[in-house]
Design a protein that fits this description.
The protein is 46% helix and 16% strand. By secondary structure, the protein is an alpha+beta fold. Helix 6 packs across helix 8. About 12% of the residues have low confidence.
């Protein structure tokens, strides 16, 4: 049993758009260290792009963040809700993983309908989160090293984000936090994810010089 197996089984059972496990720090939008998704939609990218969202809150507050009607959270996370809505997400359920005092990340479920999960399904989701937590705690790396079998891997897209951040910083002579903020603004304005924008920058197809104002 591995993390990807948990994600795929839960996604299939719930009919979810995606189920993602993200390994993160207590500042998740600035430090997504690894992830496992059950589909190729990578909806976890939306939270990284918006620098806000339910997985980060679940980790920071050390308790589940359940949003059966995501639209109602617009005042809280306008960027995340707007991006998620464009991709057909209507409800999100995030559960912290690991020890309560020291969560390692979150398991997040993305659903296409509001009020998508009943109590029995939520119980199933909590069980899957506990199972994922057990896998993490048994395999917890002191120095992050990700297995090659895909159960818990840092995607190439993440390294592209850091590479693009450095390129923008050098080109526009700005600090790295300002560079990533500019990349996020461009991603939001263009309806892309941060990973997609980073790929365009690295490939030389996009320059953010005109975005600097």
């Amino acid at each position: 049993m591995n993390i990807s197996t948990v994600c795929r089984a839960l996604c299939r059972e719930l009919g979810a758009l995606d189920v993602a496990v993200t390994l993160t720090s207590l500042e998740p939008t600035d430090a997504v260290l690894g992830e496992a998704n059950c589909t190729d939609t990578y909806l976890s990218d939306l939270e990284v792009t918006a620098a806000q969202g339910p997985a980060g809150e679940a980790v920071a507050r050390r308790r589940p963040c359940l949003l059966p009607r995501l639209a109602e959270a617009f005042g809280r996370w306008p960027g995340f809700v707007a991006l998620a809505g464009e991709r057909g997400v209507a409800s999100v359920y995030a559960f912290p993983l690991g020890e309560r005092a020291d969560p390692m990340g979150a398991l997040t479920i993305y659903m296409a309908k509001p009020d998508a999960l009943d109590e029995q399904q939520l119980s199933l989701a909590r069980g899957a989160a506990e199972l994922a937590s057990g896998i993490l705690l048994n395999d917890r790396p002191d120095v992050l090293q990700f297995n090659s079998d895909g159960w818990y891997s840092a995607r190439e897209g993440r390294s592209e984000v850091y590479q693009a951040q450095g390129m923008v910083g050098v080109e526009l002579r700005m600090a790295l936090p300002e560079a990533i903020a500019l990349m996020r603004a461009h991603a939001f304005a263009s309806g892309m994810t941060l990973t997609e924008v980073a790929s365009e920058i690295v490939q030389g197809r996009v320059s953010l010089r005109s975005d600097q104002a």
